[in-house]
Design brief:
Belongs to the ABC transporter superfamily. It holds the Pfam family ABC_tran. It is a peripheral membrane protein. Residues 4-235 form the ABC transporter domain. One of its GO terms (cellular component) is plasma membrane. It is built from nine helices and ten strands. It is globular. The relative contact order is 0.18. The chain is of the alpha/beta class and 239 residues long. It has helices spanning 42-49, 71-75, 93-103, 109-122, 138-150, 168-182, 195-201, 219-223, 229-238; strands at 2-13, 16-27, 31-35, 57-62, 65-66, 78-81, 156-160, 187-191, 204-209, 212-217. The strands form two sheets. A six-stranded mixed β-sheet has the order 6-7-8-3-9-10, sandwiched between helices. It is 37% helix and 26% strand. Helix 3 runs parallel beside helix 5, helix 4 crosses helix 5 and helix 5 (138-150) runs parallel beside helix 6. The structure holds adenosine-5'-diphosphate (ADP) and magnesium ion.
């Protein structure tokens, strides 16, 4: 089943073309890493998929449904985790998790809490459930952010540089959580600069440059013997 299908999507900010005829499909359970230089349109692509940016042209289908036809239904199939953790600072960890299921999905509070506790166990933070985000490390905050996105039971998870604002010693714990998810059947798109992780965890890697996906292939093809000069030069700079 095709979870995501895009056909020639374009996005402009004023005169600046940020996405230029981007077309791809993602199947159920696939893990895609998106790499490429800063400013190449990686964040804009994820933001467009989940409706945070309106595309100017092209077509976008989520689980076979065109976003033009049914916006809210489609976007609820996706969860997103950002570089900054964006937790609600005035809510405890567990209240961060139950907010959206109660308000958006009209879940009963007790049910939402049971599910939230399960998710907090999954990301290793059950013992932090009643504290406020300010008392968590960056890695813990990001694990809460992941659990919060999962609380909406999305079919697709989007990660935009989930470890980029973390101290180096905290990166591993967040990557471990994402790696565990990848082993489940959830479809994921991950923008990352962690090349070793991308290579291990992905079924396919998209390399973006100037608003286009210039390579869409298995990790070996990008990391072991990249054909494109552009990719080779990017990898030598980043590794
Ligand atoms: P990446 O995530 O690959 O670093 P982005 O998608 O954030 O790239 O940005 C792609 C280009 O679009 C950049 O040139 C950036 O400056 C520009 N851009 C992103 N968001 C906006 C915005 N809201 N308004 C104007 N330009 C933007
Ligand atoms: Mg970005």
């Amino acid at each position: 089943m095709e979870m995501i299908k895009t056909k020639n999507i374009c996005k402009k900010f004023g005169d600046l073309k940020v996405l230029a005829d981007v077309s791809f499909t993602v199947k159920q359970g696939e893990v895609i890493s998106i790499i490429g230089p800063s400013g190449s349109g990686k964040s804009t692509l994820l933001r467009s998929l989940i409706g945070l940016e309106a595309i100017n042209a092209g077509e976008l289908y989520i689980e076979g449904i065109s976003v033009k036809e049914s916006k809210t239904e489609v976007y609820q199939k996706m969860g997103m985790v950002f570089q900054g953790f964006n937790l609600f600072p005035h809510k405890t960890v567990i209240d961060n998790l139950i907010e959206a299921p109660i308000i958006v999905k009209r879940e009963k509070k007790e049910i939402a809490k049971i599910k939230a506790k399960k998710l907090l166990k999954k990301v290793g933070l059950y013992d932090k459930k009643d504290i406020y985000p300010a008392f968590l490390s960056g890695g813990q905050k990001q694990r809460v952010a992941i659990a919060r996105a999962l609380a909406m039971e999305p079919d697709i998870m989007l990660f935009d540089e989930p470890t980029s604002s973390l101290d180096p010693e905290l990166v591993g714990e967040v990557l471990t959580v994402i790696r565990d998810l990848a082993a489940e059947n959830i479809t994921m798109l991950i923008v990352t600069h962690e090349m070793g992780f991308a290579r291990d965890v992905s079924d396919r890697v998209f390399f973006m440059d100037q608003g286009a996906i210039i390579s869409n292939s298995i990790p070996e093809k990008i990391f072991v013997k990249p054909e494109s000069k552009r990719i080779r030069s990017f990898l030598t700079k980043i590794l």
